[in-house]
Each structure stands twice: as structure tokens, then as C-alpha cells.
């Protein structure tokens, strides 16, 4: 049985806690976020659903898990394919996750997922219905993704998408405001198909996205693209590493 724990390193030194705290038994694929007042929010897969637990006392105690997205017990994780969580200055909690709700598709050995987003306006007690992030159904089968939340609440999401392709995947981005789906924008082409992108925001809420090249070569480089207008536009991809990675697959 897998146990999800919060390491004591997250506790301030004067209240150092040597014994790990069990947040939820039988959980997997955890991710943690913190609000402006130091509250913790931990999302994970449990019972085949996307669940969330919160802590208001530096991680000493945690709330009973609540279901953020009811996946009918069919949620799967592994290899960077778990949920993501973020919280803004209003303590609105945003969660994204790759999930499949199609009963026919679920019969496949490896069901193709879509990328979903849900939000809570009461600190993670209840969540609204999930919204599909990728505009075209069937284009994000693995939904390898990254998500970051601006202090003002905008959700920035980058993910692998194969629209217009028979094989291979490209990098797409969307900015979600108040849980409403925005236009999907292509940022990069031909990514490594098993590597999630990286995404971070600067102090002004501008997204920076990095990803691993997936073209056939003996040394796949890392690419980066930067927005200076809150995600409305991005710079042409630039190579981040100047030394060869010598990693081919």
C-alpha cells in the first residue's frame, strides 16, 4: 500500500517534525501548493479519483480528503501523468488532471485521456464541474502537462498535443481565467513524447515554458519560450543548453 507523506523539511526549523505525517493512505502522484498565508494544498490520485487535502498548521494535521474530480474510480497515474494544483491570492484552488470519461475508450488497455481543470472558491472544500482544457477531443492522449497559477488567479497550462498529427506531439498552451477555457496556442513542435514540459511564472505573471526536443537526433536539446505579455504571445523557441546532452531517447 502506498502512503502519501509530507516531508518534515517543509516545516519551519523551530517546529521541526521528525515523524512524517500520513496525509492519505493508498494515494499516488502527489503534488503540493502553498498559499500566501502558508496554508498547504496537496492533490493526489486515490480510489481512482482526484482528491485534495489541506493543512492550515504547517503540515502537522491535514483535512480529510475531498473529491476534486469524480473520475468514477478510473483515474490513472504514473510517469509524470498525475494531477497538478495551484492557489491564488484569493485562495481559489485550481487543479488539472489527465482523465478519460469515455466509457468505450476506457475499455482500451491504455485509454486516451483529455486534460481537465476544476476550481474551488471555498479553499478546497468543494469543486465545480471540470472543464476540458484541450479544445479538440482526442488530441492529448497522455496529457503530459505543467500548470502554474498567477497571484491574480489566471491558470497557465502547457501540455503535449497531437492535433494534426498521425504520430509525434507538439506543445500547446492555454490561459484559463475564472475556469473558462481560452484559445489553445501552439508553442513548440516535435517534443519528446514521454517528457512533461516545465512552466513557471515571473513576478509579473508572465509564463516561461521549457521542453525537451523530440526530433530524431543523438543529442536532444532543451528549448525555452518566454512571454512578456501574460501569455498573449511568446518568443520564438530558443535553445537553452549550449553543451550537447548526448541523450537520444
The top level CATH class name: Mainly Beta
Rg (CA only): 18 Å
How many domains in all?
1
Class derived from helix and strand content: mainly beta
**Number of helical segments with 4 or more residues:** 0
Q: What is the number of beta strands? A: 18
Mean pLDDT over all positions: 87
Strand content: 35-45%
Q: What are the segments in which pLDDT stays under 50 over at least 5 consecutive residues? A: 5-11
Shape verdict: globular
CATH third-level topology: Neuraminidase
Which range best describes the helical content: under 10%, 10-25%, 25-40%, 40-55%, 55-70% or over 70%? Answer: under 10%
Q: How would you sum up the major sheet? A: 4 strands, antiparallel
**CATH architecture heading:** 6 Propeller
Order of SSEs: EEEEEEEEEEEEEEEEEE
Strand line-up of the largest beta sheet: 3-4-5-6
SSE arrangement:
Blueprint: E1 3-6, E2 21-25, E3 28-34, E4 40-46, E5 49-55, E6 66-69, E7 84-87, E8 93-99, E9 114-120, E10 131-132, E11 145-149, E12 155-161, E13 170-176, E14 185-188, E15 198-201, E16 207-212, E17 222-226, E18 238-239
Antiparallel strand pairs: 1-2, 3-4, 4-5, 5-6, 7-8, 8-9, 9-10, 11-12, 12-13, 13-14, 15-16, 16-17, 17-18
Describe this structure in words.
The chain is mainly β. The chain has a single domain (25-239), classed as 6 Propeller (Neuraminidase), CATH 2.120.10. Helices cover 0% and strands 38% of the residues. It contains no helices and 18 strands. It has strands spanning 3-6, 21-25, 28-34, 40-46, 49-55, 66-69, 84-87, 93-99, 114-120, 131-132, 145-149, 155-161, 170-176, 185-188, 198-201, 207-212, 222-226, 238-239. The strands form five sheets. The protein has a four-stranded antiparallel sheet, with no helix packed on it. The chain is globular, with a radius of gyration of 18 Å. The model is unreliable at 5-11 (pLDDT under 50).
